[in-house]
Amino acid sequence: MSEDWISAREAAEVMWPGKRPAPVPNAITKRAEEGLIEARAELLTKQGPGGKTKVPDDPIPTEFWGGRAMVPDWESGVFTAHVQQNASEEEWKAFGVTFKRSKIEAMAPLKTGEIGAPAPAPTLAKNQGGNPGKYDWAVAVGTIVFKWSDPGNWQPLDVEEVRAALETHFAKTQKSPDEKLFKKYAEWIFQEIEKRK
After folding, report:
1. 50, 64, 141, 177: which is deepest, by most CB within 10 A?
2. Residue ranges of the domains in the chain?
3. pLDDT at 144 (0 to 100)
């Protein structure tokens, strides 16, 4: 295998070291669906009403990743999806799936250790008249977690999506935390979501 491409197994190990990802769509497949990660297959088969076609050594089309009933097998590198084509559904199977190494490594978690939950912003010891500078992070984090865990859930593609959701939450209030706090909480929440995929 060229050093520019890595197997599905290697990609999973880079993203989730020591863990076996569930056979469901995740951050890698969601990014591939959006065209943010390049993927190839040694062989792509398409089974539909007109029969079976085989496409050897070709890029995997983005519509494959958004197909119904997407089932990735990270260990074997065989991925299956049902894709709508010209008013009929086809079963597509990609064998020997590989991903562009640089794209996978760019989204991998930091190797320096886990990011802990940020400490709450300090509040004033004594009320000097008016409200102390406090933000309800518990409600903000809860809002993001519920948004992610609901059926048909939202799957953030990166830290910036989580940050944008936090900013939207706080836009509804009179006060907004500073950029450093948004960044710390967004990184922590995104890492926790990725661990559970």
Report:
1. 64
2. 5-107, 110-197
3. 80
Look up residue 116 and give its amino acid.
G
Structural contact between residues 29 and 38, judged by C-beta atoms closer than 8 angstroms: no
How confident is residue 79, by pLDDT bands cut at 50, 70 and 90? very high
Are the CB atoms for 31 and 157 separated by under 8 Å? yes
Q: How many CB atoms lie within 10 A of CB 64?
A: 25
Mean pLDDT of 35-51: 93
Amino acid in the structure at residue 166: L
**What's the pTM value of the predicted model, to 2 decimals?**
0.56
Q: Is 83 exposed, middle or buried (0-12, 13-18, 19+ CB in 10 A)?
A: buried
**Alpha carbons 133 and 62: distance in angstroms, whole number:** 46
Q: Match 């865990």 to its residue by tokens.
A: 149
